[in-house]
Amino acid sequence: MSQLINSQVLLNSRPKGIPQAENFTIATSPVVAPQDGEVLIRNRYLSVEPAMRGWICDAGNYSEPVGINTVMRSLAVGEIVESKDPAYKVGQHVLGMFGWQDYATIPASGIDRVIDTSKLPMSTALGILGINGLAAYFALLEVGLPKAGDTVLVSTAAGSVGSCVAQIAKIKGCKTIGITSSPEKVELCINEFGYDKAVNYNSPSFAEDLASACTDGVDVYFDNTSGRISDAALTLLNQRARVVICGTASISQWDPIPHGPRVERHMLVKRARMEGFVIFDYADRYHEGVSQLSEWILEGRLHYREEIKHGIEEAPDSIAALYRGDNLGKRLIKLAD
After folding, report:
1. What is the pLDDT of residues 11-29, one digit of tens each?
2. Crossing angle, helix 227-234 and helix 206-213, to 10 degrees?
3. What angle do CA 67, 71, 73 make, to 5 degrees?
4. Which of 152, 183, 257, 337 gets the most CB atoms within 10 Å of its CB?
5. What confidence category does residue 59 fall into, taking pLDDT thresholds of 50, 70 and 90?
6. What are phi and psi of 108, to 5 degrees?
7. Peptide bond into 256 cis (omega under 30)
8. 176 forms bridges with which residues in the sheet?
9. pTM score, two decimals?
10. pLDDT beyond 90 at 174
């Protein structure tokens, strides 16, 4: 084991706002052999999430910030290459917070689940069957409470969460409208993810375009952005509308807290409800979501797109790339075959 070398992406400085490549360093060290109750995992795919920005900021968040000079926290899927725990066998594919690194030596309790790759690719466990698809599933159905005939408005509509939200909403009989960042992504929303309409928030006439698209108002607003996009969306709420706050991607930093239009009057007059969502609150129900999402994929009712980069060298700039809107699909980093 001492002959194996592990490449690791370390957080070297606390970013102000969106993490950049210079906030990370790639270092190497010998692979650590597993002890009793531990497993050694060779990572195959690393995940890149918008939420990672919150995981490394020093402002309050739902998880402890990643420590300076420690491996960047990340979901990953990989193969067990050595096991010192009888519950796990060499060759099994597993998912967990294994970090941005080639190898992870961890307690077996750190494995979230064993991945079945017989019907769907291993990579899907980090996207459509990972926290992206699960966030879409639980946030929409448990918080948004869509009903047949509702209009569901989705920001970051072409992203890995938003695109899944829209397709689930269509399965439930809803009308879907997307907000995205470019004409190319507008076409993607309509032609690939089945939105009824989509608008470009970078258009000079965005507010007017959105109002024109939402002629029947909005019953569920699935908010991944906050900021000026949501300012425009909240004016269009119907009575008893539900607003799901799943992300705040348009806000570059929260210290000091940015100011904008007040939402209270919209919520009062429309008797609307706004609720935040964090996927980890639903950890004990992941199996339910994975089962239903898998069924819809295999039936051809749920489509997904992946954008795969190759090599750990792609990791340091990958969070910034998400916020630049460079990706068309779930961003993954492939380390090995």
Report:
1. 999 998 889 999 999 999 9
2. 40
3. 80
4. 152
5. low
6. -60, -25
7. yes
8. 152
9. 0.90
10. yes
Q: What is the pLDDT of residues 224-274, one digit of tens each?
A: 999 999 999 999 999 999 999 999 888 777 777 888 888 898 899 999 999
Nearest C-alpha neighbor of 214 from the set 274, 156, 305, 153? 153
Token couple for 335: 């380390």
Q: How many residues does the chain have?
A: 337
- What is the token pair recorded at 140? 């929409």
The count of other CB atoms within 10 Å of the CB of residue 58 is 10
Paired sense of beta strands 218-223 and 151-155, if any: parallel
Contact assessment for residue 237 and residue 270, using Cβ atoms and an 8 Å cutoff: yes
90 confidence band (pLDDT: 50, 70, 90): very high
| Distances in whole angstroms, Cα of residue 36 to Cα of each of 3, 33, 89, 110, 279 | 20, 10, 14, 14, 31
Residue 34: left (phi > 0), alpha (psi -120 to 50), or beta? beta
